[in-house]
Amino acid sequence: MADPKQPTTLVELLYHRAKNQPDKTAYTFLKDGEIEEASLTYAQLDEQARAISVRLRIPVKSITDSGIKPITQTGEIDHLS
Fold first, then answer.
1. Which residues share a beta bridge with 28?
2. DSSP state at residue 32
3. In the chain, what's the furthest Cα-to-Cα distance?
4. What are the phi and psi torsion angles at 78 (to 5°)?
5. What is the pTM of this model?
6. What is the mean pLDDT of residues 67-72?
7. Alpha-carbon dihedral sign for residues 42, 46, 52, 53
8. Contact, 62 vs 48, CB < 8 A?
9. What residues are paired with 27 via a beta bridge?
10. Distance separating alpha carbons of residues 50 and 65, to the nearest angstrom
11. Model pLDDT for residues 5-50, shown as the tens digit of each residue
12. Contact 29, 38 (CB under 8 A)
């Protein structure tokens, strides 16, 4: 049975797609607006967003079988030199 709660925000939609369609192309990057140069799947987009979030120490949400839940992190922000 499908989850009755539909995503209502862009963040929820991206998490939903990463969970349910991880190998589907999310973005295609074009060189000079014409030639396909690279692409990014929903799983790759989710992974990169999480990596950036961890680096910035911003709470992210986790996809679980029971829905989207916030993940909180503790620790100090690394200072850039």
1. 39
2. T
3. 51
4. -70, 135
5. 0.59
6. 61
7. positive
8. no
9. 40
10. 18
11. 788 888 888 889 999 999 999 999 999 888 999 999 999 999 998 8
12. yes
